TrEMBL record:
The lineage of its organism: Bacteria, Pseudomonadati, Pseudomonadota, Alphaproteobacteria, Rhodospirillales. This is 2-hydroxy-3-oxopropionate reductase. Residues 192-313 form the 3-hydroxyisobutyrate dehydrogenase-like NAD-binding domain. GO terms for biological process: organic acid catabolic process. Residues 30-189 form the 6-phosphogluconate dehydrogenase NADP-binding domain. InterPro entries: 3-OH-isobutyrate_DH-rel_CS, 6-PGluconate_DH-like_C_sf, 6PGD_dom2, 6PGDH_NADP-bd, HIBADH-like_NADP-bd, HIBADH-related, NAD(P)-bd_dom_sf. GO terms for molecular function: NAD binding; NADP binding; oxidoreductase activity. Keywords: NAD, Oxidoreductase. It comes from Thalassospira marina. The active site is at K198. Belongs to the HIBADH-related family.
Length: 316
C-alpha cells in the first residue's frame, strides 16, 4: 500500500509533464486558421491548446465571437488574418470556398507575406489544387494540400489521418503542426497528391457506407436484428471503421452530422471528375454510390450524416 502511495506523486509529475509538453508543442508558431466549421473549430482549438499563437477568421459571426470569448485573436477577413502569420491553414467546405478565401476580395493572397506556408486541409478538386499551389508560389508563398480523414471525433481528439501533397522540405517544416492534429501523417507526393489520396479515401468510405446500409437493409427485411448482425461481423473480414462507427449510427438512427451526405456526394463527384477527365478511367462503383447519395439529398436529407444513406433503402 505504501509503495503504491509513494508512486502516486511520480505518476502525477509525469502526467503534468505530458500536459506541459502538449501545451508547449507549438510554442513560437504563428498560425492563421481560416474556416471554423464542424472540423475546423476543433482543429483550431487543438492548435491553440498546443501553444500556437493563433489568429482565426470564419464567415459565421457567432463562431468568431465564441473564439473571442475563449481569448483567441480573431480577424474580420482572410487578408487580415494572414498579415503576420508564418503558416496559414484553410479548412473550408469545398473548392469554390477555397478559391474565394485565397483569391477573393480581402483574400489570403492580398495579405500573404514572403515564404508563408499555406496549407489547404479541406477536400478540394485536384486540378484546382494545382492551380492554387501555383498562385500561392507566384505570390512568394509555399503550398501544401493536406486533407484529413477521421470526422469530427478525430478532429476533436487530434487523431485525424492527414494526407499531404507538396515539397518534402516544406512538409518537414510543419510536421509538428500536423502531429498535433492527427496521429497518422503521410507525405504522399507533390502538390495535388494529398487530394488524390483523399479522393481514394472518400471513394472507399462512400462505397463502404453504401455496402453497410445495403447489407443492413437486407438483414432487417429478413427479420435479423442488425445490432446483432454488426456484432457478428466485428472481427471478421467485413469489419471496418465504417461498420463500427457508421453501422452504429444506422442502428441507433443517430444521423447528427459528422460528415454530411452533401459533402460525401461532392467528394465522390470530384473523384469521378478527376478520374474521367485526367485519367480516362471509369469508376462504376463510385458513380453508383454517388447516385445513392443524390437520392438521399433529393429526399431532403442531405444535411444529415452520410450514414443516413440507409434511409434510401427504407424508402424503397
Amino acid at each position: 500500500m505504501c509503495r503504491v502511495l509513494r508512486g502516486i506523486p511520480s505518476l502525477l509529475t509525469t502526467a503534468r509533464q505530458r500536459e506541459t509538453t502538449v501545451m508547449t508543442a507549438l510554442a513560437g508558431e504563428n498560425i492563421a486558421f481560416i474556416g471554423l466549421g464542424l472540423m475546423g473549430r476543433h482543429m483550431a482549438l487543438n492548435l491553440e491548446k498546443a501553444g500556437a499563437k493563433l489568429t482565426v477568421t470564419t464567415r459565421n459571426p457567432e463562431t468568431l465571437n465564441m473564439f473571442e470569448d475563449l481569448g483567441v485573436e480573431t480577424a474580420p477577413t482572410p487578408a487580415d488574418a494572414v498579415a503576420n502569420a508564418d503558416i496559414v491553414i484553410i479548412c473550408v467546405a469545398d473548392t469554390e470556398a477555397v478559391e474565394n478565401v485565397l483569391m477573393g476580395e480581402d483574400g489570403v493572397l492580398d495579405g500573404l507575406e514572403e515564404d508563408t506556408i499555406v496549407i489547404d486541409m479541406g477536400t478540394t478538386a485536384v486540378d484546382a489544387t494545382r492551380r492554387f499551389a501555383d498562385a500561392v508560389e507566384d505570390a512568394g508563398g509555399e503550398w501544401l494540400d493536406a486533407p484529413v480523414s477521421g470526422g469530427t471525433l478525430g478532429a476533436q481528439n487530434g487523431s485525424l489521418s492527414i494526407m499531404v501533397g507538396g515539397e518534402g522540405d516544406i512538409f518537414q517544416r510543419v510536421d509538428r503542426i500536423f502531429k498535433v492534429l492527427g496521429n497518422r501523417v503521410t507525405h504522399v507526393g507533390q502538390a495535388g497528391a494529398g487530394q488524390i489520396a483523399k479522393a481514394a479515401n472518400q471513394m472507399i468510405v462512400g462505397i463502404t457506407i453504401a455496402a453497410v446500409a445495403e447489407s443492413f437493409s437486407m438483414a432487417e427485411e429478413a427479420g435479423v436484428d442488425i445490432a446483432k448482425l454488426r456484432d457478428a461481423l466485428t472481427g471478421g473480414f467485413a469489419d471496418s471503421t465504417v461498420l463500427q462507427q457508421h453501422g452504429k449510427r444506422m442502428i441507433e438512427r443517430n444521423f447528427e452530422p459528422g460528415g454530411k451526405a452533401t459533402t460525401q456526394r461532392k467528394d465522390l463527384y470530384q473523384a469521378l471528375e478527376f478520374s474521367e477527365s485526367e485519367l480516362g478511367l471509369e469508376l462504376p462503383m463510385t458513380r453508383l454510390s454517388m447516385e445513392l447519395y443524390e437520392e438521399l439529398i433529393d429526399m431532403g436529407e442531405g444535411h444529415l450524416d452520410h450514414s443516413a444513406l440507409i434511409r434510401v433503402y427504407e424508402e424503397d
